[in-house]
Predict the 3D structure of the following.
Amino acid sequence: MNALIRRAGLLLLVFAAVAAQSTAQDNPPQGQGRALERVEQFKKIRLMEVLNLDEQSSIKFFARYNKYQESLRDLRKKQVQALGRMQELRKSKAADSEYDKMVDELLSLERQINEAKSKYVEELKGTLTSKQLAEYLVFEARFQQNLRDLVRNLPRNRQEPPTQ
């Protein structure tokens, strides 16, 4: 049963990896949005298993988790927009001062992401035990690494099988 769950999870991660390639777009295709939702649902189920949360702790944890994920999405969207503006500057051969402003903006967004994560982890200390918090941090790092690995290992050009 556990192997089946892991295989299903791997399949969901592959779908997410495909969908993650388009997250830089403001409006990902509908099918990819559903794949991301499925991965998020799978992640939440696995988190409940890994953390062994009771009902009350689960409610508190996921309220904080959802709030944090939303703030991350907003900050990452701003990063993508800033990088788009940076690309426009490159095309227009802007002055160094314009690049400096964009770099400062990107650094500020990166700081905001780090501050949001620190605040989130501090909030979790009131909900999770120290062991659960450690389990969560390890799970999160591994989950993200597995997702990156899957995206990296996707075939770049799928070829049709030869016809006879």
The chain has one domain: 2-153. The chain has a mean pLDDT of 80.
